[in-house]
Amino acid sequence: MTDSATFTTDEDRAIRASWAKGVLPPCPRCEVTLTHRAIGGGSFGLGYSRKREWLLCPSCKRSVLFDARRGTRT
Ligand SMILES: [Zn+2]
Q1: How far is the CA of 48 from the centre of ligand 1 (A)?
Q2: Segments of the chain scoring below 70 in pLDDT
Q3: CB under 8 Å, gap of 24 or more: what pairs does 35-40 form?
Q4: Which residues crowd ion ligand 1, with CB under 5 Å?
Q5: Taking the CB of the first residue and of the last residue of the chain, which one, N or C, has fewer CB atoms within 10 A?
């Protein structure tokens, strides 16, 4: 592990599982509620409308970025 600013696969999976249930999960390391930011297409001139979810820990700065398609209507 050379990059300290990432979650492990298991932590990442747990965060996504909580999010899929509509729960804003805590950081598994800091027990601080993650900050949620929605990243919509178009704002950055990327030319696509896919929305992404970004969950960021305000304490350790680890973050999870994933597509928002899962469990939501398109
Ligand atoms: Zn944290």
Answers
A1: 31
A2: 1-4, 41-50, 68-74
A3: 38/68, 39/65
A4: 27, 29-30, 57, 59-60
A5: N
